[in-house]
Each structure stands twice: as C-alpha cells, then as structure tokens.
Amino acid sequence: FVANAMVIFGPTLGGIVLAKTGWRPVMWICFAACVITAFVVMFMVKKDNGPKKSLKGFDFGGAIFVLVFFSMFLCVPTFGQNNGWGNPVTLVCMAVAVISLVVLVLIEKKHQSPILSGQVIFRKNFILPVIIMFLSQGLLQSCMTNIITFAIITTGDRTLSGIATSIMYVGMALGGIVLGPMADKKEPKFVATIALVFVAIGAAMQM
To answer: Where are the bilayer-spanning segments (predicted)?
Structure first.
C-alpha cells in the first residue's frame, strides 16, 4: 500500500516542485529522500541472524558488466527518441552497451559460477518472461513519455503532466492488486497475456 501510494503521489508532488523551482532542486530532493530512507531502513530493519553464505567465488565482474550493459542498453531508446539517434550521447550509450556485452560474454565463459549461465538463459522458461518483461516495460515507458510530453506541449503545465502520470500509476497499482491474486491461481502465461493486453490497450488509447 505504501509503495503504491508513493508511486501515485510522487509524480504529482514532483510536478509541483518542478513547476516552482526546476530540475536541479528535484534531483537534490530525490537524493535527500534516498539518504533519509537509507538511514531509516538501517535503524528500523532488524539484523538477520540466519546463516550467511560466503561471497567466495561470486561473479563480481559479471555483476558489474550486467549492470553497465543493461543500464546503457535501456538508455539507448530514450536518448535516441529525445536527442536523436545520431546524437553523441546516444552513440556513446550504444558503444558502451556493445563493448560491455562483449566483455560480459568473455567473463561469463571463463567464470566457474557465472551470473548469466548459458544453460539457464537459453531455456524457454527464462527467455519468454524476459521478452514479456521487455515488451511490457517498453510499452509502459512509451506511455509514460507520451503522457508527459503531451501534457507539457499542449498546456505548458508541468504540474498537470505530474498529475497525468499519477493517474497512470493509479492504473498500475490497480493492475497489481488485480493481477497479484490472479498470479497465485492462474497459469503464468495467462497472467502475462492479460497484463500485455492491458498495456497494449493503454498504448492504443493514446494513439
């Protein structure tokens, strides 16, 4: 409930702050909120006294390059759409994504316990959920970008764009409430299909 509430009201509050101040104060406010939250979690979450596993043999190199690759890979569509596909920033993201992917493959081939094991990745049970995730998240980000851009271009009101984004998150929260119990009772394929259908309907409504 708390997570859904923060996701819903966050864009509206952010839009108000953005309209009154600018982008930089919003970033600093987010940074301060993260620091405060980290301290609250450190003092409120109880220490886990359960058995601990050693990090010996952990694939640190793979973990780092997984983070770099996916970060750059996911930035490419956004930067390409907003700044242009030939923009230096977009091209740098593409180059870093390709290089980090090559390095990641080389590291994973040599490591005894790779994070991205080929035996796991190329199974249908792994590939299909990843494809569904990329499709749903891609459509979601497209919807969000279009909502924000449309509100700002047509009205010039950044607060309104925040409110519009909050309304979208209300739909996401309701979707989680509806699909959550369904996931425990129905087949994963059925739940994933329903989720994709609703995301596609939302994208079609904007078109």
So the answer is: 26-45, 57-79, 85-107, 127-153, 159-178, 190-206
Predicted confidence at residue 206, as pLDDT, reads 60
> What are the pLDDT digits (tens) for 58-107?
888 888 998 999 889 888 887 887 788 899 999 999 999 999 999 988 88
Spatial CB neighbours of 49, under 8 Å, sequence gap ≥ 6 = none
Same domain, 191 and 129: yes
Q: Which amino acid is at 108?
A: E
* Residue 37 and residue 10 share a domain: yes
Answer for the pair 104, 66: CB distance below 8 angstroms, yes or no. Answer: yes
pLDDT digits 0-9 by tens, 73-84: 888 887 887 788
Q: What is the CA radius of gyration of the chain?
A: 20
8 Å CB contact between 202 and 172: no
Half-sphere exposure of 66 (CA within 13 A, CB side): 10
Beta strands in 17-156 (DSSP E): none
Question: Which residues, at least 6 apart from 204, have a Cβ–Cβ distance to it below 8 Å?
Answer: none
Rounded distance, CA 86 to CA 29, Å?
33
pLDDT band at 183 (very low <50, low <70, confident <90, very high): low
**Domain match, 185 and 133 both:** yes
64: which residues sit within 8 A by CB, 6+ positions away?
none
